[in-house]
């Protein structure tokens, strides 16, 4: 299977990349295993110097790398460049904090366990496989790679097949910065070959960001081989607006939450649940602003919404919207694919939804918002929790008791109060229910792929 960069703004094939043959895959796993052994004997200080150097490479090449991202998956150029800078920032964060996060923790009174000394320590696992998506082709990889390498692990990357140039860039990044040969290697393979890589005894763990189906498959294989796995899967995040909220700010933020990355973000607000007292005001502002967005060439700085990354993704979105409209949904904005080349879809708002519609339970991976009317807080919470996903959530209310009530009741890995969900390096990131398990970022993220070893000494 030849890998290809297909420009989503035009539909044209830009680059063809040949996949790795089985012997090359074996060799790259071998390199990663050797690098893991070498990294375990290096110091945090040495790894931090290399990581800072890798971050400098990203910063220096931000504009060119941003253009590559946009050509491969279609996000507006200013967002692509921002993704590169955010990736460099998280690299510096782990370079500066890894040693503290993984420091030995002594038992204050070792005598209670009959020891003269007792403590816990974190040790790297070895080679960790990352199966990564196309929607943030640099950030998703780096937020795994930075903590994994700083902990002393090596990494293997199976990237999405439509971003092969991003994979090739990442394949050499860490080695260019001084890390041992093989510390991070891309595997240009198809999805069917992941099972064989994960089964390899040299690979000790796996992390996946992607669809629920992909997560179920990878988790099953990891379970068969008793290997650690971390999954960040889909999301259908609720964005709840109550009467005490600042409706003007909430509506403007809702637009940004829904169309960021052309709507292709797991943690984007997707279901907008608005109290009936402010529903009409919010809906009018939301629809007006969504309809006014500039759709166009993602390389043009004036563009606010670019194409979806793939033709299949755009077609899936068309099917979801058509299904809802056929079953009675009201279209407040958009609802169509523009008549132009590329994989574009107009920013859309659907209202009047019912449980027979696929969009109520499935993730809309594109600039389509579902709008719900809730009669009270209990109804809003029920709608928010009715899907099988539980990644993040956003609640807009100035009432402290209401804030605490939603915080307690929402089934999600995160709750943002009066703000839009964003991943921060200082906060753990991950979901519950069918949005996955495990955490990335913060201290929790670097500890996921470490052995927490207890030490007892007489």
From TrEMBL:
Keywords annotated in UniProt: NADP, Oxidoreductase, Plasmid, Tricarboxylic acid cycle
CDD domains (alphabetical): ALDH_SSADH1_GabD1 (cd07100)
Gene3D superfamilies reported in the protein's UniProt record: Aldehyde Dehydrogenase, Chain A, domain 1, Aldehyde Dehydrogenase, Chain A, domain 2
Cross-referenced SUPFAM superfamilies: ALDH-like
InterPro entries given in the database record: Ald_DH/histidinol_DH, Ald_DH_C, Ald_DH_N, Aldehyde_DH_dom, ALDH_GabD1-like, GABD/Sad-like
Enzyme class: oxidoreductase
EC number: 1.2.1.79
Chain ranges of the Aldehyde dehydrogenase domain: 3-455
GO function terms (MF aspect): aldehyde dehydrogenase [NAD(P)+] activity; succinate-semialdehyde dehydrogenase (NAD+) activity; succinate-semialdehyde dehydrogenase (NADP+) activity
Lineage top rank: taxon: Bacteria
Keyword match Oxidoreductase: yes
Keyword ATP-binding annotated: no
Pfam families per UniProt: Aldedh
Gene Ontology annotations of biological process type: tricarboxylic acid cycle
Family recorded in the similarity comment: Belongs to the aldehyde dehydrogenase family.
Protein's name in the database: Succinate-semialdehyde dehydrogenase [NADP(+)] 1
Organism name: Corynebacterium occultum
Lineage: Bacteria, Bacillati, Actinomycetota, Actinomycetes, Mycobacteriales
Underlying gene: gabD4
